[in-house]
Design a protein that fits this description.
By secondary structure, the chain is α/β, with parallel strands linked by helices. The chain has one domain: HUPs (Rossmann fold, 3-Layer(aba) Sandwich). It contains six helices and five strands. The chain has a five-stranded parallel sheet with strand order 3-2-1-4-5, with helices on both faces. Bound molecules: 4'-phosphopantetheine (PNS). 4'-phosphopantetheine binds next to strand 1, helix 3 and helix 4.
Length: about 160
Amino acid sequence: MSIAICPGSFDPITLGHLNIIRRTSKIFDEVIVCILNNAAKTRHMFTVEERLDMVTRAVSRYPNVRVEAQSCLLAEYAKRFPGAVIVKGLRAASDFEYEFQMNLINKNINPELETMFLTADGKYTFLSSSVVREMAMYGADIKGLVPNELIQEIENKAKQWRN
Ligand code: PNS
């Protein structure tokens, strides 16, 4: 059985993330969306528990996708699933530099681990969690950027952040 791991901080999950997850779910038998903290991001908008809940709801329509939250290294986590492949989306050349470095670090820790990249859908090349956070904090409309069912709670959290 082929397994893909789609890792990310998902703070919050965007339609760009969901597009990559959906396309990955058509290629692999099983997809594990793994929520991790990004050490470069010192302050997350949503707690890991909140992100787990939001991502789980967002992917509930895809039967072969499940969600986990982990606090270990991604390459260590992947050892639990021999043969599993990491799948990430690439929006632009700037993403490639970062992802290339991550891939090398992960391979150093777990030499068996392969990473594959899907190019982002053209509609989402500008989209990131940080764009969504910033727009929501300024009260801009985030419809079309995140799953509809999450809009209200992102706006509510942004309001708390503003104050
Ligand atoms: O969505 P992001 O923030 O680009 O995802 C980055 C993430 C969370 C996948 C990356 O920071 C990560 O793998 N974090 C877990 C810890 C780890 O394995 N770090 C890489 C080796 S130092």
